[in-house]
Amino acid sequence: MLQAIGLTSTRHRGLPPAVDDLTFEAGSGSVTALLGPPGSGKTSTLRLMLELEPGRGVTYFRGRPLHRVAHPAREVGVLLGDVPGHPARTVRGQLRMLCAAAGVPASRADEVLDAVGLVGLEDQRIGTLSLGMDRRLALASALLADPHTLILDEPAEGLVAREADWLHGMLRSHADRGGTVLYTTRDPKEAARSAGHVVTIDSGRLLADQEAADFSRTRLRPRVAVRSPHAARLAAIISREARAARRSVEVVTEASSSRLSVYGSSCAEIGDTAFRHGLPVHQLADEVGDTGPASRPRDSGVLGDGLRDNGLLRDGVSDCDPLSEGEGEGKGGDGAAAAARPATGIGAVAAASRRAAGGPAPAVESAGAQLPPRIRRRPARGPLRPVRYELRRLFGVRSTTLIVAITLVASAAVSVVLARNGRAPLPNVLVAWPSLLPLPPAALGAGLLGALSFGDEFRYPALAAGRGTVPRRLGLLLAKLAVSAGVALSLGLLVVLVSAESLRLVYGGDLVQVPSNVMSLAASWSGLTVGCAWAGLLAAGIFRVTAAGVAAVLAVPVLMVPLIEAVPKAPTARSMSGLPGRLRELTWLQWPQEADRWVLALVRVVAHPVGTALTLSLSVLVCAYLFTSLRGRVRW
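Given the sequence above, the corresponding structure tokens read:
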């Protein structure tokens, strides 16, 4: 069961809150629709429930708030908008990445792909998927960890009738297995035919909390949709004849001036009236209208919702609609898109009652009943879970390989050019760092990869919808730091090897010699590449954009180093030559004597102006990240 208690969003600039003291429940084993017009606070309600927005109130998922759930992905599956993933990532790559984050086997990706009907499209890029396939992938992501609760924000918006029916069939199947389903919608008829419980809100406040049968009886009523080039004249005639006959007939002119909605009459009566007065009629169809306080006229063109059980329709199309077969599907116009719908509206409520009584289910439900199998083992825990996620995220797109390739090619070219005049020192030649550049290509590449590590997390938030704001998780931060450091070290080593091989190929093998201070140079080079990667990563995590990470990397040599060099230096009166021995005594650790050289090399790196600037920048970024990003509930 899901219980939302006192949800209230934070006010902004004196405006009323988008959600104001909202309390409702969504029971297990049923589908609950959160109904409201655009701007009523539906999406804000879901984000408050998932702790994605600041505010008051609490939401209990089977008696526990989300931040108290040990495995959030196992408890809640979320569909907010389109697929939150990099458009260049493949369908299978996206799901395998989420498998690593949720701690479930990678084979689970193939199971959910088969369940949602995406077999054969696993190697398709996310950016090339159609809306229907995109929504199927989003549902697969929500079902990946076999959650008990599904939370979806307008999942059927923009879908054609067949895709929408399939989606709602999947949701009903999940509820039949004992799960809880909560989805938002702006269409009262969709809520009536697809949900067993309807919660109506407007302006962030609760208007009604009803079972689907009560909702259909109180909020929906039959009407006749009329389209005519003389709609105003026809409306006046229908109203005049109704008053003369003392009949309760209501005529509403909708957004289109040629369309009318007539309540309290029938197709035959309106057709006779138009014929007697010689008025042409382009559409005449039975529909179901919304009479709730939050309703807005919508030219949805859905035919026959809720009238099948009354015998007024045959196969979902009104007998008095002569144009229903000629309309195009999915255009939001006069009806043909909805003509293929099975029992809808009030008829769906009756179908739900038949299911509860053990009667036969409609064909669309059986088609949507192929949910992925249950996960028997518990999700894996431990530090390797975020590391596996980060590795799949990093190497699941071609941009990583492209950046590495460009860095290696640029470094080799710069090294060959630097070695031509013979004036540049050999270390600068090997790392491709001329004095004209603020940083070598390897440092810039490592910084860009680090910035993309968090920049993509905010631009394509694959995890944020399901488990809160993921970049606030300490485990993910440590995993990103470790992976970015490994990538930076590997990139730095590859640059040196490629540069050395390029020099040997162009100028011969006599040019490249191993310097005597190779340990100090290796420590300096490693510290520079790793420091740039971390600076880009932390800055992108603080400002939530990749460009901020790249700017932080460039700010080290452009701004910080000149400031460090401008500080007047006092004469050195003491030496740190005995520092390794004193550290050994302080920590009571006995490390090899060879490690003393590494400690002294590290000290010299930090004492260098670039090392000092990079150390200060990283210290500031770490403090800023801890202050801005880890103030909330920290968990992986």
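The radius of gyration is 32 Å. Try to locate this feature in the token string yourself.
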